[in-house]
Amino acid sequence: MAIKLIVGLGNPGQEYMFTRHNAGFWFVLHLAQQFNITLAPDKKFHGVTGRGQIHGHDVRLLMPLTFMNKSGQSVVPMVKFYGIDNDELLIAHDELDIPAGSIKLKTDGGHGGHNGLRDITPHIGNDFHRLRVGIGHPGHKSKVSGHVLSKAAPDEQIAIDSALSAAFDALPLLLGGDVEKARSQINGFKLPE
């Protein structure tokens, strides 16, 4: 199946826009900009939504405005309203367990402690596609909140942006339904030495 809905998880508000936790938002914002898709507030879905053509495929975009730990309040109604099957759903989110500059495409699995996914999976299951954008782990769990809610250092941000570019390059495969080739291309990305 082809991807019909791309969700970018993050927190609303200018104070959070450039924090690591908003890596999913960055992905969707870049898509909207690159493919001239207008994003607008949509009260029905508690988020910012858009629809347009990406590499010849009709795709909806969503950025929940519910704060991360309430992402299900936005994602679930949109999935149900448009009849999006889980194999047609891609959720982009930050991932602590992957170093900055790495990116992974995964299907299935638990929430891995990610509060946005934790709020979504009880309602739709966990067999959807996830674009896991590495932001690195601060080392101790007591530092996680401060880490995800702060800006990446300039070298980390460059690494994250490079990883996101690798995902953009694989989009034609993913949108066309060739998930395995897209996964191989995305998961094989390595930062230049």
Describe this structure in words.
The protein has 193 residues and is of the alpha/beta class. The chain is built from six helices and seven strands, in the order E-H-E-E-E-H-E-E-H-E-H-H-H. It has helices spanning 23-34, 72-82, 115-124, 144-148, 154-175, 179-187; strands at residues 5-8, 40-42, 47-54, 57-64, 89-95, 103-107, 129-134. Helix 2 packs parallel to helix 3 (115-124) and helix 5 packs antiparallel against helix 6. The longest helix has 22 residues, at 154-175. It is globular, with a radius of gyration of 15 Å. The termini are far apart. The mean pLDDT is 92.
What is the CATH class? Alpha Beta
CATH architecture: 3-Layer(aba) Sandwich
* Element-level helix/strand string: EHEEEHEEHEHHH
Q: In the CATH scheme, what's the topology name?
A: Rossmann fold
Tally the helices: what do you get?
Answer: 6
Beta percentage is 15-25%
How would you sum up the global shape? globular
- Please list the strands of the largest sheet in the order they lie side by side: 2-3-4-1-5-7-6
User: What is the makeup of the main sheet?
Assistant: 7 strands, mixed
How many separate structural domains?
A: 1
Can you identify the CATH superfamily? Answer: Peptidyl-tRNA hydrolase
Radius of gyration: 15 Å
Count of extended strands: 7
> First CA to last CA: what distance?
36 Å
Helix coverage percent of residues?
25-40%
Averaging pLDDT over every residue, what do you get? 92
Low-confidence runs:
none
Q: Briefly note the structural class of the backbone.
A: alpha/beta
InterPro entries: Pept_tRNA_hydro, Pept_tRNA_hydro_CS, Pept_tRNA_hydro_sf
GO molecular function, one term: tRNA binding
Binding site for tRNA: 16, 67, 69, 115
Active site: 21 (proton acceptor)
